Amino acid sequence: MGDTVSDRESLRLDWARTQLRQPALALRRASVDAGFRSYWRTEGGDGSHIVMDSPPGLEDVRPWLRMRDLLEGGGVRVPQVLARDVEAGLLLLEDLGGPTLAQVIDAGNADDWFDRAIAQLLKLQAIAVPADVGAFGEALLQRDAGLFEEWFLRRHLGLELDCAQAESLQLVQRRLMDNALAQPQVLVHRDFMPRNLMPVLPEPAVLDFQDCVRGPIAYDPISLFKDAFLDWPLARVDGWLRRYRARAADAGLPVPAWEIFQRDADWMGVQRHLKILGIFARLHHRDGKPKYLADAPRFIAYLDEVLPRHRELQPLAGLLQTVIKPALRAKDAA
After folding, report:
1. Which helix (H) or strand (E) segment is 206 a member of?
2. How confident is the model at residue 1 (pLDDT cuts 50, 70, 90)?
3. Could you tell me the CATH number of the domain that includes residue 81?
């Protein structure tokens, strides 16, 4: 394994030196995905660039390139590709800087940055979805639902739900899925959040877009304002959602009236929060990446503030109070 890593490092460095014609160039880790893709910043040369490394057999670079081109064609700000070797899984990109929007946004500048992010999102959602792009449909929703039960409840908390509890969870999951499938469908990023936006002007650049699908119009707005790593007061979130909905309607996007859209966004958020709890538990227990689960309380808090607004989701609220929270407390105390 060591030789393989070393070979990859040499290949990556030699390729970057060749592309930039700078034989003394060095590479320093810039960031790493939760997957196998990694990013490296050039040092010791003229200007700064990013090498994206997607090892063949582990992370195919072609879906990323294809979606990048589609988004750019729709006016979305995406990283510029300066050189590519698709077979080797190596791309040379412009350097958009160090911190992501998640690292620079705060209570004082959030309104401005979210206005700029909404502008990018509206462009993304206006792009006609190619016929061969996957759908955020029944199969994907079922998989997402299974992540929460299998990895967060069963593996992380050690819970085995009894028949009544399992039926309560399945009832709510079914309602969430039916709502998602009934929403107007647009191109969906699926992780449109400050961590995947670079704070360049006039509008932030969009990253990590390779998994775009056709899906519910409320998915990306709720992902932006109810982030996996940042949280905001519910009143501000509702205000930003209103702002997004008004601008989406003005742009001719198929967004419903506010009361319906708020419900759709709330329910989409609940579906997403449950999925992410499952993914974070899987990253911890299967992949040896424990840091993500530290954010689990944020998602429990999201559920606490939204579930009371919706009578149809009360079976999940009851499960949260009587089963899930006690199990979390017991695990924290252990």
Report:
1. strand 205-206
2. very low
3. 3.30.200.20
Question: Structural domain tally of the chain?
Answer: 2
Model pLDDT, residue 225: 97
Report whether pLDDT(31) > 90: no
For residue 37, what are the domain limits?
A: 2-94
Tokens of 109: 């500048």
Burial of 112 (0-12, 13-18, 19+ CB in 10 A): exposed
β-pairing verdict for 38-43 and 49-53: antiparallel
CB atoms within 10 A of CB 100: 21
With contact defined as beta carbons under 8 Å apart, do 214 and 186 qualify?
yes
Which CATH number do you get for residue 322? 3.90.1200.10
pTM: 0.91
Average pLDDT estimate for 158-165: 96
Q: Which residues contact 118 (CB under 8 A, 6 or more apart)?
A: 221, 224, 240, 243, 244, 247
Q: For residues 109 and 86, state if they share a domain.
A: no
